[in-house]
Specification:
heterotrimer, A alpha/beta (about 400), B mainly alpha (about 325), C mainly alpha (about 290), B: about 325 residues, mainly alpha, two-stranded antiparallel sheet, 13 helices, C: mainly alpha, two-stranded antiparallel ribbon, about 75% helix
């Protein structure tokens, strides 16, 4: 393996090399024989800004590991050139985002920028990178404006937009027979966007939102609001919560005895990856997401096996998004045979890419946001199982984008 | 202040002035950040090092300076410097006046806690308010400009221009504080730190002096906050978190409190540490915490206190007969 | 809203107040007797929660988890006291703030190394997992009532120790007049170590009790810490009675604030503190001067 010079963290170097080595051995993929004559081809610099500490650490780690796995499957070459990684911990702190992005773009002069998890970090990153900056692939941050008002030819996203997390919920709940629902969510940028997406489709489909309860972010004391919900007696409730808040919410919901009387629905993060923490409380909860662990397609089966083998962890939606980010960059670089200067051609190759992702078919909108199927899942025996497809080829209106 | 340390300061200033010629754009931006933090730290030193007021809520004024800029000008096409800067300074000064007036009536641990409480109030106010961006913060897409009529006198989009502007603010703040400390006012507040009861017995209205000191410090912190908001184009409630106040105290002590250039040195040390330590290990906070503890225990007068020793070594090597007094 | 809603909020407020009381009493004793501001106190609360999570996972039982966890927490507290805190006794508040702030950074990092960054939950023991029916619409979790009950027992025990035993007498004396206790020949170092460990145990126990209802996550100690300081300052440093009254006040203001004025809830707690300090700068039950 080539001598990768890392300006990042030494320990991370070992983890990356270890994951890469095992992935290369384990996956049944084409290993392109290459003579690694050092200095034969200049390296491509890929800058990564993801959280490896803090509450989002697992997300950041999975995204990075999956992307590296994808590169390893391709022999760790992008368009015939070896890769150098610059890996920075964003700590999911928006206040640091600007300077870290500057570091990657101005100091390290990266050719590609991958990140972040947190939407507000994403805003700072995109604000700096859009236009003349390196080609940026967002593997998670869901704020609408990243491919909306801040869209640019060099900005891509392989995850989702908050609109896509809320909009499919409307028809899904209507189809399940719920006409009067309460909309309950964390009152901050991301939560509000998801709620707005849901409201748009649900009311357009003839449903009635009895009440919108926006709970303060990031408070996790839901007692009072659940009481209010019980008193309103709707058919069901659509929610947006994530991480620790989602764990608490689902558990409190069950403890309040509401699961039988008011069906609980939510954007995917309500239950994604939280099975162990939520336990029985999550049984029967239905969520909307563009992925499910149990998706039955060949790409997903292969992917999950490979990821488990290379990292020892189970894959999740974040890993999928990271994997697809890797695929997208590969498409771009292979199309221009490694010539990073051929930007327009590379961008065209990336925006027209049709990827057979573990989530299903993945292609991109004009604003470089994913167009993919969104599934309705239900937690059965601790797993998020696909009930049906909630929305085929779900797009995003890309409000404010002038591309 | 000894002659040799004054030479050192001038040399440092010269180095800072010449840096953009040699350094890349990225490093100029980094240095701007350090200098902004140095202004913030110097303002806190006025309280901790000179007046003897341990404020654990100084970040509130930093945040207010930044938020005043962001809230007033987030939708503006042009941000006029002559409007924005005084606004931030006034907002910070006013906040310092109110908070100071209430807090200075307490002392000791109560003062520490009440300053903490006030900064928490501001933090939560901006964190939970839907109209001020909440946790997402506020983005600014333009930098302030100084215009005369329709000609641009000073455009701050350029990283190098911004650097010199910030450097000017640092020198200006430094000279201002120097002037304040040399005046009779400065003597009184230094005396208050040394022995408050005696100063009171001498007939001085101690609380009034403390309040003026508090307002000066708050205003300068607001200046730093304004500069930071203008530089990054982003403000966020975390600017006011008690974590920031804690790091500010660390900067002042690490650098050397009771001197004006100590906090400047401290800002350099801490920012460079925060930049360098993560490359050693993922768990760099352990090292950072360890360093702070070591300094608190073994080097309570900060890095500045090492200076006379280094100078003495240097001088003895050169066999110089010049005597050095305390820096 | 109906009466039962307010009843539920009242129960929540009292339960929260009790937990705060446990944490704050350790803090107030620390300051009253040893003159130390310990910002890392919230980290012991977090330690308790993580120990409960870990040991309950290992033993399968929350009781065993608590039983095993408490001695571990006290041991950690003792070590921290010997290695770090004891050097602060002669220092002024600035260095105490700085050093214990650095301790928070270190503890947070250690927690991430030991237990990672995931959010965890601790299962409620079987027979406490139900809810009792308050009214037609309202149920209330039994476990939360248990928390309050446990805290009452601990508080009663503390009262008995402090008022009725010789050790308690030394603690009270130390809180009133530190120097006198020393000059009376009492082994101050041992007393301090004991008080510190006791405070740590209280905070850890509170963290253990709370872990099934609040999730266990990185940085959870910091919120508790700040609020506990507010309790101590409102109540008056060194006063257990003050800590109790302060904790209940904060519990009520915080809980009812969240439902009645959600946007102002967090601010109200600090506003309350400012008002009380304006009226009585030494806190409700603190010594003047």
């Amino acid at each position: 393996m080539s001598d990768e010079k890392m300006t990042g963290i030494t320990r991370r170097d070992f983890i990356i090399k270890g994951a890469v080595a095992t992935a290369g051995l384990a996956t049944a993929s084409i290993l392109v024989p290459q003579s690694f004559a050092i200095g034969a081809q200049a390296k491509v610099k890929v800058g990564i800004l993801l959280p490896y500490t803090g509450t989002y650490a697992k997300l950041g780690t999975n995204i990075r590991d999956a992307m590296l796995m994808r590169f390893a499957e391709a022999g760790n070459m992008l368009g015939g050139r070896p890769i150098e990684f610059v890996d920075i911990d964003s700590e999911a702190k928006p206040a640091m985002a600007q300077q870290l992005t500057d570091k990657l773009i101005k100091k390290e002069n990266v050719d590609f920028l991958v990140g972040p998890v947190h939407s507000v970090v994403g805003m700072a990153m995109v604000k700096t990178a859009r236009g003349d900056g390196p080609i940026t692939v967002i593997p998670n941050a869901g704020a609408n404006m990243l491919t909306g008002s801040l869209c640019a030819p060099n900005i891509f996203r392989t995850s989702f937009s908050s609109y896509q997390m809320g909009y499919p919920g409307g028809p899904a709940m209507l189809e399940d027979g719920h006409k009067r629902v309460v909309l309950m969510y964390w009152n901050y940028g991301f939560g509000k966007e998801v709620a707005a997406g849901f409201k748009e489709s649900f009311e357009a489909g003839g449903g009635t939102i009895v009440k919108e309860i926006a709970t303060p972010f990031p408070e996790v004391d839901f007692q009072a609001y659940l009481t209010e919900l019980a008193a309103l007696k709707p058919d069901a409730v659509y929610t947006f919560y994530a991480g620790g808040g989602a764990v608490k919410y689902v558990k409190d919901y069950a403890a309040a005895g509401l699961k039988d009387s008011i069906k609980l629905y939510g954007a995917g993060f309500l239950t994604e990856g939280l099975g162990a923490a939520q336990g029985d409380a999550a049984e029967g909860v239905r969520t909307i997401l563009h992925y499910a662990d149990t998706l039955d397609n060949p790409e997903n089966h292969l992917f999950r096996a490979a990821f488990k083998k290379s990292t020892g962890n189970d894959a999740d939606v974040y890993a999928v998004q990271g994997y697809d980010a890797g695929e997208l960059i590969l498409r771009g670089m292979n199309a221009v045979k490694g010539d990073v200067g051929a930007r327009a051609e590379m961008i065209r190759a990336m925006e027209t890419a049709e990827i057979a992702s573990p989530r299903g078919k993945l292609r991109f909108s004009k604003s470089h946001n994913p167009i993919h199927d969104v599934y309705l899942r239900e937690v059965i025996k601790g797993e998020n199982r696909v009930v049906r497809v909630a929305a085929r080829d779900q797009d995003d209106p890309a409000e404010g984008c002038s591309m | 202040m000894s002659v040799s340390s004054r030479y050192l300061q001038l040399a440092a200033l010269l180095a800072l002035l010449l840096f953009p010629v040699l350094g890349s754009e990225f490093y100029v931006g980094l240095l701007s950040r350090i200098i902004i933090l140095a202004i913030f730290a110097m303002s806190l030193d006025l309280l901790i090092g000179y007046t003897g007021l341990v404020s654990f809520g100084h970040a509130a004024f930093f945040g207010i300076g930044g938020y005043a800029l962001a809230i007033a000008f987030q939708d503006a096409a042009v941000i006029h410097l002559w409007q924005a800067l005084p606004l931030s300074l006034a907002a910070a000064a006013l906040a310092a006046l109110v908070i100071g007036w209430i807090s200075i009536r307490t002392s000791g641990i109560y003062f520490i806690m009440i300053t903490l409480a006030f900064s928490q109030m501001f933090f939560y106010y901006f964190f939970e308010s839907p109209s001020y961006g909440g946790d997402d913060g506020i983005f600014l897409f333009f930098k302030p400009v100084l215009m005369l009529g329709s000609t641009d006198l000073l455009k701050l989009d350029n990283e190098i221009n911004f650097y010199y502007f910030v450097l000017t603010c640092l020198v200006g703040s430094y000279l201002f504080l120097l002037m304040v400390l040399r005046a009779p006012f400065g003597k009184v507040i230094t005396a208050i730190k040394a022995n408050e009861h005696r100063v009171c017995a001498l007939g001085y209205s101690v609380n009034r002096y403390k309040l003026v000191s508090f307002v000066f410090a708050g205003t300068l912190a607001g200046l730093a906050g304004f500069l930071e908001g203008a530089h990054t184009g982003y403000v966020n409630p975390s600017y006011m978190s008690w974590h920031e106040s804690g790091v500010a105290i660390a900067i002042v002590v690490l650098g050397g409190m009771g001197t004006l250039y100590g906090p400047v040195l401290g800002a350099f040390i801490v920012v460079l540490l925060q930049d360098f330590l993560p490359s050693l290990t993922e768990h760099w906070q352990l090292l950072f915490g360890g360093i702070i503890i070591s300094v608190a225990l073994f080097l309570p007068h900060g890095a500045i206190s090492l200076l006379p020793r280094i100078l003495a070594l240097f001088r003895s090597k050169q066999d110089d007969a010049q005597e050095s007094d305390d820096g | 809203m109906e009466l039962s809603f307010y009843l539920v909020q009242l129960l929540n407020a009292v339960q929260y107040g009790f937990l705060l009381f446990l944490v704050a009493s350790g803090l107030t004793l620390l300051f009253g007797i040893m003159g130390i501001i310990n910002l890392a106190h919230g980290s012991f609360y977090m330690l308790g929660s993580y120990l409960a999570y870990w040991l309950t996972g290992v033993t399968g039982n929350l009781w065993l988890g608590i039983l095993l966890g408490l001695p571990i927490a006290m041991l950690v507290g003792y070590l921290v006291e010997r290695l770090a805190i004891s050097s602060l006794y002669k220092r002024d508040h600035l260095y105490q703030v700085l050093l214990t702030f650095a301790l928070i950074l270190i503890f947070n990092e250690l927690q991430q190394i030991l237990w990672g960054t995931d959010v965890h939950s601790v299962p409620i023991p079987e027979f406490l997992a139900g809810s009792i029916q308050l009214t037609e619409n309202q149920v209330y979790p039994v476990y939360r009532l248990f928390i309050s009950a446990a805290c009452i027992v601990v508080a009663a025990g503390m009262y008995w120790v402090i008022q009725k035993t010789r050790l308690g007498m030394m603690v009270r004396a130390g809180a009133t007049n530190r120097e006198m206790v020393q000059s009376l020949g009492i082994n101050v170092n041992r007393l301090f170590a004991l008080v510190f460990s006791f405070g740590v145990a209280l905070a850890a126990f509170a963290g253990m009790l709370a872990s099934p209802v609040d999730s266990v996550y990185p940085g959870m100690g910091e919120n508790v810490l700040i609020i506990s300081f507010v309790v101590v300052v409102i109540g008056g440093t060194g006063s257990i009675k003050g800590a109790f009254v302060g904790a209940m006040l904060i519990g009520l203001v915080s809980t009812f604030g969240k439902v009645l004025l959600p946007e102002m809830a967090s601010i109200m707690v600090y506003a309350l503190m400012a008002v009380i300090l304006l009226w009585r700068p030494q806190g409700l039950f603190g010594r003047a001067g």
